[in-house]
Amino acid sequence: MRLKTHICKRTSVNNNIDYRLQSSASQRSASGNKEKANKEKANITPLSCVDWSSNEEIYFVSDDHQIYKWSANTRDSVEVAKLPDDFIPTDLHWLLLGGRSSGGGKGSDTLLICSNDGRFIILNKSARVERNISAHSAAISTGRWSPDGAGLLTAGEDGVIKIWSRSGMLRSTVLQSDEPISCARWAPNSTSIVFSQGCYMSIKPLAANSKLTRWRAHDGLVLSLSWSTHSNIIASGGEDFRFKIWDTQGANLFTSSTEEYAITSVCFNSEKDVLVVGSFNMLKLCSSAGWSYSSCRFSEPTVGSFYTMSWSTDGTQVACGTSTGNLVVGYIVERQLISRNLKATTTGRKTINLQDITNGSSDVLDFPERVINFGLGYGHLIVATSNQLHIYNEKYINTPIIIDGRTDVRVIEVGKKFFMVLDATSIWVYTYSGRLHLNPRYPGLQAQVPLLTARAVTLGLDVLAIRDNSDNTVIHIFDLVPGASRQYEPHSLRAKTQIAEISACRAGTLDDQYVVLIDNNRELYITESRNLNGAGGGGAAAGGAGNAERGLNGRNSNCGEIYKIGTQLTTVMWASETNILVGVHDTCYSIWYCPGEGAADPTLIALTTLTIDATEFGKNITLESFEDAIVTFRCAGALLPVNVNIYCEILHRTLMEGQWQQALRICRLAQNGNLWATLAAIATRKNQLQISEEAYSAALQIDKVSYLQYIKELSSASAEQMAENSLMLGRLIEAETILLHNKKFPEAVALCLRMHNWRRALEVAQKHEPELLDKVLEKRRRYLKALQRDEWDSVFLPLLDKESDDN
Amino acid sequence: MTEELQKAGLYIDDIYRLRVQDPAIANETNELRDECLEYANKLQDFKKYAEDFHKLISDFAKDVEKEKLRAIGTQNLLKTIAKERQAEQQVYQSKIHEKNIELERLRNEYQYLQRVESEQQEIINNYLLNQ
């Protein structure tokens, strides 16, 4: 990835001055030259206030008090307004309430400009000053609107940080100190502020009575900060020639090597995993993990230090203001996506080069508008330009399908059957033929769309899962199977903890669809994502328990069960063609060969999970792709492919097609514990008793084998066998329901007793067969005796009394 | 008679014309006049030459001044060139560093790809053996 830059001529600025000079020069030709030189020198005032008002327009103002607007369409800047002469601007920030539209902001957009005498002004879209507020006793170093748009913060060199409402009413004084504040930024969720004083950085949560976290960040002054909305980390650049990346607790994630000059500015891209770092005559494009893609030097002409940088809202362009007063605009080129035989690279603002290594072809795709985003996978290339979507099939490159009206697409996710785009207004699921398949809705979605990220939305084979942004514990799951009756009514699942990231499996069969969740404690959970809609299914299914198919539906009674299958995960990814999951921990990675089917049974998860040390890769590993049986890790910029057990991949494929004998042969050929355990898990789930018995015995799970033998002894397809089978799959309630509905009360009570579910046993006995009561009490007595305790359960106490009365 | 005339301030010259001035003096005066005229002319010439010379010299001085400035400029440039080279070297150094990192990345990738290839080869061999 590279940054292509051009220095924008502030043409109108120079022209103006030249014109004035010429008129004066004609009168005094001798002194004219001198004056011209002086004026030009005076024109070199540092440009420290730059921001995008839309994806095409940059507003900037330097010490000459003139607000200019530079437009990407005309590549020219025009004067917008003039500030008062005593107002020396120090910071400028747009609040874009109109959303992320390309066509320029809405009327409600407002501009904040701070000055070096402690004032700030709020301007409306037509550049009329609406508020002029004296806020600090010294220069304001930073003025920023909060990401939620509710207010703004100002931080001054008097050591004070204040928060103001949108209309400029003082809300609170967050901090009062003696040291000047050089930079301050909001957290993406607007609940805390990071700021720097001298060599120190601090994070101040806004909640009452919360503690300030403060640490020494650099050996020199901290000059610039940036808080990433994309990955919630903080970057800082300092006078010690280094830039560093921190997590929100202040732990250091990355420290760069010393650059040639001080790092004057850092800025995270809000949409992509990119950080841009500015120094003297140099811009560096880095990944969020810190390693650099490329650097861009300005030796001729020199531009000076980069004082300020700002990414456009769509994350494709960056505007920079430099110490010599130049406005430098850069955009990312050579972004690359690789999937199987296809490689797509952006070569310019409007071109993509698509290479296919199987037939050696290389096509240059031209677009009428700027390319904002693109996705590649499953033989399709999806390109989002400013207002359109282009769908390319690898077989018919020359005839793309074009969808109009999708503006500023932020996230593209390709699946086997569908692809999903997240744009400025909503989430859209399309088929590859360009037909809109689903436009999911749930209460509150509209307001959340700007806050949704790729981590919170996931497209599986047949499901779309979205994490609710107002309540982070809730996931909404949409069924994508064509003709599914409740497509527009999501199934909402509630986890116990806050969810940070979700990912749906990309392959498998209709019955085996899973979603994995990573919560805020970085623990990994898995849940089924289909067959969820039958809330009453358990009862209905058990009624016809003799029927095998109903038995399948019977699983519904345990629907929505969330199982924990891993801890300390940084990120996870499903395989493209099978339900194998790979996850990255701090210094190792894990492969779950059978996360879905085995989820209910911790031993199975343990047997089918392989954790491999990854210290040889280095630090900060991320997952790039997982195609077929090859996982690609990205580590310090290098793409490192690693094979997973290919037999297991083939096993999954054969099982998807229901070829059990073939699967057995593969397992026998490979002779691998993981493989047998995987087969066992799937076979048990699909009620293939014979095969699961063999698989379990090969995986050395003696207890399971003997239990399976016991199940097989029971008359086949009887209620008892079904119940036992359910137990085997860890579905206690379902087993009990099956027994009850088939009027097998003694067995049901015995089951409850086996599970030490005393109250339930008692309840069942009392309700259905009073003569079983004695048995329950007898067992309870023995249990108490073994524990050497007296009865404590309030349900059993009256019975105990009665019994003693009888005696 | 000549003396008489001389007393009256009159003279007779060689061709017996009556003169009011001694012819010898008159001749000398004439000569002197001619010489004076010649002298004046020569002086005029000299002045021209001097002026030309002055112009030439001052032009030359200007050139010298120019050259001098240029020399100082070049000298300064020479001085900064060392610094420039140093900066350039630094730039190249950091570029080399970047390329090295890139190389390391690619080498790493290659190594892992080779590993994948050998694993796949192994599986193929294994499969063929088991056929």
UniProtKB/TrEMBL annotation, chain A:
It holds the Pfam family Beta-prop_IFT80_2nd. SUPFAM superfamilies: WD40 repeat-like. Residues 675-799 form the IFT80/172/WDR35 TPR domain. GO terms for biological process: cilium assembly. Residues 334-647 form the IFT80 second beta-propeller domain. It is found in: Cell projection, Cilium. Its main location: other. Keywords: Cell projection, Cilium, WD repeat. WD repeats lie at residues 133-165, 215-256. One of its GO terms (cellular component) is cilium. It comes from the Eukaryota. PANTHER family: OUTER SEGMENT 5. This is (Mediterranean fruit fly) hypothetical protein. It comes from Ceratitis capitata (Mediterranean fruit fly).
TrEMBL record, chain B:
It comes from the Eukaryota. It is found in: Cell projection, Cilium. The keyword Coiled coil applies. This is (Mediterranean fruit fly) hypothetical protein. Keywords: Cell projection, Cilium, Coiled coil, Flagellum. Residues 89-116 form a coiled coil. Signal peptide: none annotated. The gene is IFT20. One of its GO terms (biological process) is protein localization to cilium.
